What we know:
The complex is a heterodimer.
Chain A: H1 17-27, H2 29-47, E1 58-59, H3 65-68, E2 70-71, H4 75-82, H5 84-117, H6 123-132, H7 139-150, H8 161-168, H9 180-207, H10 212-220, H11 225-250, H12 257-263, H13 269-272, H14 275-282, H15 290-317
Antiparallel strand pairs in A: 1-2
Chain B: H1 13-16, H2 21-47, H3 52-55, H4 71-77, H5 80-112, H6 119-128, H7 136-145, H8 163-176, H9 179-187, H10 192-203, H11 205-221, H12 224-229, H13 239-248, H14 250-262, H15 271-303
Helix pairs in contact in B: 2-15, 4-14, 4-15, 5-8, 5-11, 9-10, 11-15, 13-15
Amino acid sequence: MEKTVAAPRLPGKNRSPVSRFLAYVKKYWFLYLLILPGFACMAVFNYAPMYGIQLAFKEYSPRAGIWGSEWIGLENFYRMFRDPNFIRAFRNTILINLYSLAFGFTFNVFLALMINELKLRKVKPIIQTCVYLPYFLSWVIFAGLVQVFLEYPSTADVGGVVNQVIQGLGGAPIDFLKEPKLFRTILVVTNIIKSAGYSTIVYLASLSGIDPALYESAQIDGANRGQMLWNITIPRILPSIMITFILQVASLFSSNFDQVYNLYNNYVISTGDVLSTYIYRISLGGGTDFELSTAMNLILNVMGLVVVLVTNKYVEKLDVQGIF
Amino acid sequence: MSSNSIKPPRRTMLQRFGFNFYDVFVLLFCASFALLCVYPMWYVAVASVTPYGEFIKGGLMLWPRGGVDLQYYQAIFGTKSFINSMWISVSKTVIATVLSVIVTSTMAYGVSKSHIKGMKFINALVVFNLFFSGGLIPQYMLYKDLNLLRNYWVMVIPGALNITYFIIMRNYYSFSVPHALEEAAQIDGCTEVGVFFRIVTPISKSMLAAISLFIAVINWNDYYNYMMFISNKTELQPYAWVLHRMLTDQTMMNQVRNGAVSMGIATPPPPMALRMACIICAMLPIMCVYPFLQKHFTKGITLGAVKE
């Protein structure tokens, strides 16, 4: 008799991990089903390509494919650091990012403060509408606008507005987009025009939370606008400024392919070529050096990842959500 | 203390309106930067409809002098490859956006339930992709194996999971959807399925609409996948790529100019004017959705920024 009165199967007890796991999945099956399409996409398009990273340590032969190609150790990396074009692209990338940090970043903060200081309630939304707009145009369109404005006069055209103005003032027209000395400046300035407005949003959002009573009491105490700006407004957005700054430092090795690819040409390659465009040119964009391209991408990713992980630690210390 | 010191200091005319030089500087600065952002687009829009005789004189093009002339647009729309590329762009934008919003939002909702086993790990797996990828060539090799090279779907499927908007949506679901509502529904006997379709989705409708527009703009602007993985199959080129070629490729430009002449336009149109008309065509759809975008993105971008 005792045999038939077997202990009732308590959930979660005396059961193998596998069946417990299955029961858990069964309970939350819908949530697991929801993430399935995204998970599959990620597995196929983001993680599956990573097997190709082995090309960085191989000599690629199209006939043998990725798996069949011969291992050559670190040869590709030695080749990379001996490649003057790589060094040049590396230097350009870092320089452009540093200039962007020095000018673009400060300009963004300044613009946010100025928009915040605007007193006319009706003008403010109009200004905001205007400055956010360029962010949504692609770099192809924006490069077109830049080209239209900086065009050098030719037989078929009068040239861009900027050159018309220069000529009107009695100067000689400048071929801006073919002048290596000016190219990095053009990159930084066009990037400011395109994205400064959009990057003020984060600052403006944290500024909108300031209690107006703070300003009123400061006014009663006799503070002027400058003092209010320095003592109330700026401390309020300092955390946002810090985060944006850290994140921008973290992307020191990344380069804006879209921007550079649409603006550069053979004349300015000495100052304008950045890592992403160089990686493209030696592989799919004309060249066939697949393994060198993979090796460069690998080393950039590793360096970038290290910087991001380190900076994310700092971001988490400021009472704000990190990226992870 | 004399009674004089209590009197307010004398105010100038400007100050009486609540204005001083500080305000004037702020206003001038903001207005001139706003102008710098918008004027190029206005200039291009005006120049592209200005008749040839006026256009060649140059100037600031504040308004269309000498009437509106649509001959450059005629030249563009008379070219077969333009019409074709418009179709490709529109169709790929619609399909890719719908697919991407469905895949990304469902995954973001699942992962936002971080108390469920495995979700935190999956979240880390997704975010890791922001910083580390196989790179261009491994991607190319994989697409080759999957038969996606020179295939229309390479512009649609690989971007289905958008990581940036995944993070924004995940934060929205975990911070902005009231959990009390979900719990109440579950106590009333609603299943997980019901909670998602009957409670969460209706609440987040406006967020989904906003993000769909953002993703649509990204897809409309995209030419990268075409350039890398299709590259010379012209019947599949999206409009953004046609624009890129109009800006850089002399043979393409000559084709369009000669086509315009054969259509009966007397002089071959100047390259600059044709480029401007192309730029306007690429900008127009974005301009149409911009008012809706602007309404939402101030909320969207800050969703992920500040801890509750």
